[in-house]
Amino acid sequence: MLGYLINQYPAASQTFIRREIAAIEALGTPVRRYAVRGWSGTLVDPDDEAEHGRTARILDAGAAGVLFATLATALTTPLAFGRALATAWRLGGRSQRGRLVHFAYLGEACVLRRWCARDRVDHLHAHFGTNSAAVALLCHQLGGPRYSFTVHGPEEFDDPHGLSLADKVAGAAFAVAIAEHGRSQLMRWARREDWPKLHVVRCGVDPAFLGAPPTPPPATGRPLLLNIGRLVEQKGQLTLVEAAARLRDAGRDFEVAIVGDGELRPALTARILALRLQDRVRLLGWRSGAEVRELLLAARVLALPSFAEGLPVVLMEALALHRPAVTTWIAGTPELVQDGRCGWLVPPGDVDALAAALGAALDADAAALARMGAHGAARVAERHDVAASARQLLALVAAARAGAHA
Question: Which of 52, 46, 54 is nearest to 25 (CA)?
Fold first, then answer.
């Protein structure tokens, strides 16, 4: 049995994990879903609501349940518990979160080990190289299944030493990055002898997006510039608001819609008011997958002025729907978006360059947008088929199983 571990799941910003699990199960491999905790936000997508019911959440066991699992593990497997306790101490000493939090991870790992044994999970795959990978590592040291994990970035690469990425790779059967850029960053921090464990498995796009017929944006009304993502500093939405003000002052006709929510919402709201952009920029909050698709089809381009990324799935979705992107030349983004062929790449943080690129997108005629959209859709179909990514991941799991029995 294959298990999946995520910190918070399901969440509005993690539909790519749900798609990956669905693709694996479509290939005949059932998946047990585990999460440390549930998402604190409101689930607006029916598929996420259904996934919530399929997921076992460790912290739902409560403090008493975690304590019971910890004491039982310490009493029945003292050597393994001592080894995992030493690892938690070492990892916690490097982390900004400290040792106490890592002792909590150890308790979570004790619950998870019991669940994996109950469910006959022999391989555990974690998403993100943060606390979920730490819990998977500790679970393995307690006698639980071997594990692997997917690194997305940029959080893992902001503090690779504090997150003990090298230790997590060393203990894993394999580690996956979602782009070549991510794999190169793992190579920076992993031991040289662990480089053969590092692979690229690209995030996949929902099959409903692949092969979508070219649908031009509406010819009437204000041209829509669409942004989708968590409202956090790394996504650069404040620069999009600044660029919108410059386009407005230049007499351009357009509308900006921002889909998502997060800690930056108050600052964005205040800046929109200060620049008197209430009639041009809308904050829509989270939307369901069907609503996101409709917004993409209504948009002229996707505008994603990020400062830090791995490789955003929303870029894949936009290009798959024949929508060019205005985005930044960071991380794995240039591996997908080719400047001038399926979008515009600008320096991160450069409001003038962003406004100029958005202006070029507004000026582009229908034929130019169609050519760029077709090129982008072809690149996504070639590189981001979720079924192909699922087969690649399952092949790595099968190789790990074979190696364990060799």
Answer: 54
Gap between the Cα atoms of 235 and 85, Å rounded: 37
The letter for the amino acid at 294 is E
Identify the CA nearest to 33 among candidates 105, 143, 121.
121
* Model confidence band, residue 336 (pLDDT cutoffs 50, 70, 90): very high
Burial class (CB in 10 A: 0-12, 13-18, 19+), 334: middle
What is the Cα–Cα distance from 323 to 316, expressed in whole angstroms? 10
The span from the CA of 241 to the CA of 227, in Å, is 11
At 6, list the tokens: 């995520």
| Residue 160 φ/ψ, nearest 5 degrees | -65, -35
Secondary structure in 3-state letters for 233-260: HHHCHHHHHHHHHHHHHCCCCCEEEEEE
pLDDT per position as a tens digit, 16-43: 999 999 999 999 999 999 999 988 888 8
151: left (phi over 0), alpha (psi -120 to 50) or beta: beta
Q: In what order do the strands lie in the sheet with 31-37?
A: 55-57, 31-37, 2-8, 123-127, 146-151, 174-177, 198-200
CA angle, residues 42, 159, 203, in degrees to nearest 5: 55
| Calpha distance 215→204 (Å, rounded) | 21
CA atoms within 13 A on the CB side of 312: 29
The span from the CA of 281 to the CA of 296, in Å, is: 16
Condensed to tens digits (0 to 9), the pLDDT of residues 178-207 reads 999 999 999 999 999 999 999 999 999 988
Paired with 32 in beta bridges are 3
DSSP per-residue string spanning 7-50: EE-S-TT-HHHHHHHHHHHHTT--EEEEEEE--SS---SHHHHH
Q: Which of 16, 17, 44, 14 is nearest to 284 (CA)?
A: 44
For residue 190, what is the DSSP state? S
| Sole residue written with tokens 């690129």 | 357
The whole-angstrom separation of Cα 3 and Cα 31 is 5
